[in-house]
Design brief:
Helix content: 25-40%
Order of helices and strands: EHEHEHEHEHEEH
Strand order of the largest sheet: 3-2-1-4-5-6-7
Shape: globular
Low-confidence stretches: none
Distance between the termini: 11 Å
Mean pLDDT: 95
Radius of gyration: 16 Å
């Protein structure tokens, strides 16, 4: 089975991209990152891509979807990986890569969809939350769940400390979930 080509979309600091990159370098994830794309010119994910010598692109919001689709196709990407990507993709974009866009979300879906899910969990008095890797569909945070990790909400937690502990789990979970999903979809093709 060949290694999948990944296209990473990110808007933030790039910590999940970095975790995926290092998992590949350590041969824990058998994949190749073909490019990183961001809708924010100064996003940390672009700086990390430059540091790791991964092709990287800023695409402004007006042309984002059409230019991103073209670049992903040009680079023959197998899986589109959302890593701290803070935009909702259109149905047209999702339908261009059906069942081949993955996202990591900072809650135990289906609970707490949308923005600042860890804060929603913390404010609601939940005893635990976590993170979820799922397939992206046109409905927000509603696609098939591929993997989850649980994080206990401690009495001394603040929103910030809880988020940091969730992110640590994300960094471990995402590369494993990508590898497992790629293996599953390749088994189905046989």
């Amino acid at each position: 089975m060949r290694r999948p080509f990944l296209g990473i979309l990110g808007s933030g600091k790039g910590s999940n991209f970095e975790a995926i990159y290092h998992a590949i370098q350590q041969n824990q994830l058998k994949a190749e990152i073909k490019l990183v794309i961001s809708d924010i010119a100064e996003a940390g994910v672009l700086q990390k891509a430059k540091q790791f010598q991964v092709p990287h692109f800023f695409i402004n919001r007006e042309k984002f979807e059409t230019e991103t689709i073209a670049l992903l196709k040009q680079h023959q990407v197998d899986l589109v990986i959302l890593a701290g990507f803070m935009r909702i993709l259109s149905a047209d974009f999702v339908n261009t890569f059906p069942n081949h866009i993955l996202n990591i979300h900072p809650s135990l879906l289906p609970k707490f969809r949308g923005k600042k899910a860890w804060e929603q969990a913390w404010q609601s008095g939940e005893k635990e939350t976590g993170c979820t890797v799922h397939i992206v569909t046109k409905e927000l945070d509603s696609g098939t769940i591929l993997a989850q990790r649980r994080v206990t909400i401690l009495p001394q937690d603040s929103v910030e400390t809880l988020y940091e502990r969730i992110r640590q789990q994300e960094h471990q979970l995402y590369p494993v979930a990508i590898q497992t999903y790629w293996e599953q979809i390749n088994c189905l093709r046989r």
